[in-house]
């Protein structure tokens, strides 16, 4: 009996050890799933699917917030973010993560379709989500901060990296995901495939499409606020979220190349309106473009030095038109404009840097327009008018007939009535001083005006034959 009892205790101990080992190998999935009689069920009736395809920016934040609002208003709503992104702006990423953490409905991130990636900003969004899924042949990781712009010191870079590590570790701990990979993704730009991510507890679900994700999500326990709920997705309807006009417009405007071009169009329009008063069209187009460009810059990280260099370059090129500097101002303005263009956007985030081709083309076009076209416009303004009162004043006329203090003169091949303060002789050359209706005021002395009053002082006359 004692031998049998000892054998029984030994077998029981082996069973307990084996159960413990199996429990540890279950990893995160064992922690996320709960017994059916544990947390209350969350019946999912509507799954709102929003697509994030491309760099993460202000438009992505608006898209995510709108989709969350739609899922919150739906009966039994759940949001599924289908993402394929190379990364994006840090501020936009933090806004999206904050919205997910505060969401009253479950949020699932699905890296899809095959070949997609959740790099950099996408990794933070995935870690923040209640559930994470990946399609086969997808990757995630490489979450080292790159949105700091330009070369910075080692101390500042270390602070930025440590801050990002602390942030993603807190998200991993909150959702019960692999903390080690999260830290390596930031410090070492580590990446993981879909199969490895599921095996290592980085994501919970391996699914090829949205319907598979919804089906596999059934039974998982997630925390909404302070409450743990078990997802029940059987029979859930899948609804695609429409981005809407505002999101599409913001996506276009916050493209650095588009914002930059709008600014230039605005400057061109206003400059040419001042050079040619009364055109109206150029002024209206310029004002609208400038306002749209400034609106876009409000959402983008910009360098103040770049803005000042752009303004200085424009000012120098405009000054070249009015000041004879033999090209010095124009060349200096073009150089300042080019340098300002390259450092205008203070970020290295994918999708939010200015194309060098756009910057160089814009510099050449701006130099050409301001130094050649604007110069031609200014010369046209300075040219004597060909008609109207201005075309007659200071011109030379020939007396055709004269009696006393009035008579007729010929100017530009036309006969005009004329008056003067002195008698004139037929055939005499006289100078026009003013026009009153169809009568000219003339005299023998050349036309001169008061320089102190700001009028022209030229007394040049036609040489007499």
UniProtKB/TrEMBL annotation:
* Predominant place of localization: membrane
Span of domain NfeD-like C-terminal: 390-443
- Database matches in Pfam families: NfeD, NfeD1b_N, NfeD_membrane
Q: Which residues form the NfeD1b N-terminal domain?
A: 64-238
**Gene Ontology cellular component?**
membrane
Region (Disordered): which ranges? 445-465
Enumerate the spans annotated as NfeD integral membrane domain.
Answer: 257-374
UniProt keyword terms in alphabetical order: Hydrolase, Membrane, Protease, Transmembrane, Transmembrane helix
Which InterPro entries does the UniProt record give?
ClpP/crotonase-like_dom_sf, Membrane_assoc_protease, NA-bd_OB-fold, NfeD-like_C, NfeD1b_N, NfeD_membrane
Q: Which domain of life is it from?
A: Bacteria
Compartment list: Membrane
**Which Gene Ontology terms describe the biological processes this protein takes part in?**
proteolysis
Gene3D superfamilies reported in the protein's UniProt record: 2-enoyl-CoA Hydratase, Chain A, domain 1, Nucleic acid-binding proteins
Q: Listed GO molecular functions?
A: peptidase activity
Give the membrane topology. Answer: Multi-pass membrane protein
Which range is the signal sequence, renumbered to this chain? Answer: none
Residues spanning the membrane: 258-275, 306-323, 328-345, 357-378
Q: What protein name applies here?
A: Serine protease
């Amino acid at each position: 009996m004692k031998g049998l009892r000892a054998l029984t205790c030994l077998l029981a101990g082996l069973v307990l050890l084996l159960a413990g080992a199996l429990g540890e190998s279950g990893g995160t999935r064992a922690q996320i799933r709960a017994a059916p009689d544990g947390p209350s069920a969350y019946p999912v009736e509507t799954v709102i699917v929003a697509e994030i395809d491309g760099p993460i920016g202000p438009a992505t934040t608006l898209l995510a917030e709108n989709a969350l609002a739609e899922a919150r208003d739906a009966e039994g709503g759940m949001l599924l973010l289908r993402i394929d992104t190379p990364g994006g702006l840090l501020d936009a990423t933090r806004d999206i993560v904050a919205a997910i953490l505060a969401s009253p409905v479950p949020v699932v991130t699905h890296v899809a379709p095959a070949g997609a990636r959740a790099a950099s900003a996408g990794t933070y969004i995935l870690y923040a989500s209640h559930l994470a899924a990946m399609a086969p042949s997808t990757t995630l990781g490489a979450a080292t901060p790159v949105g700091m712009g330009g070369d910075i010191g080692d101390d500042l870079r270390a602070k930025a990296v440590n801050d990002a590590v602390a942030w993603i570790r807190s998200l991993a701990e909150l959702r019960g995901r692999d903390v080690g990979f999260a830290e390596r993704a930031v410090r070492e730009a580590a990446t993981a495939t879909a199969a490895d991510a599921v095996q290592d507890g980085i994501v919970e679900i391996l699914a090829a499409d949205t319907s598979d994700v919804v089906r596999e999500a059934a039974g998982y326990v997630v925390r909404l606020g302070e409450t743990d709920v078990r997802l029940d997705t059987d029979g859930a309807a899948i609804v695609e979220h429409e981005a809407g006009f505002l999101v599409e417009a913001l996506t276009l405007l916050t493209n650095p190349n588009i914002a930059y071009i709008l600014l230039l169009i605005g400057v061109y329009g206003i400059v040419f309106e001042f050079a040619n008063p009364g055109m109206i069209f150029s002024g209206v187009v310029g004002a609208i473009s400038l306002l749209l460009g400034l609106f876009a810059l409000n959402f983008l990280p910009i360098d103040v030095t770049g803005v000042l260099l752009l303004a200085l370059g424009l000012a120098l090129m405009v000054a070249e038109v009015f000041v004879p500097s033999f090209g010095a101002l124009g060349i200096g303005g073009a150089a300042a404009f080019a340098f300002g263009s390259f450092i205008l956007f203070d970020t290295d985030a994918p999708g939010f840097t200015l194309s060098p081709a756009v910057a160089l083309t814009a510099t050449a076009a701006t130099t050409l327009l301001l130094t050649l076209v604007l110069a031609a416009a200014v010369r046209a303004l300075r040219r004597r008018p060909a008609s109207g009162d201005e075309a007659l004043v200071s011109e030379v006329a020939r007396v055709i007939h004269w009696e006393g203090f009035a008579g007729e003169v010929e100017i530009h091949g036309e006969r005009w009535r004329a008056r003067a303060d002195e008698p004139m002789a037929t055939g005499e050359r006289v100078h026009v001083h003013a026009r009153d209706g169809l009568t000219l005021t003339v005299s023998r002395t050349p036309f001169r005006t008061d320089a102190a009053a700001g009028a022209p002082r030229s007394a040049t006359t036609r040489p007499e034959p």
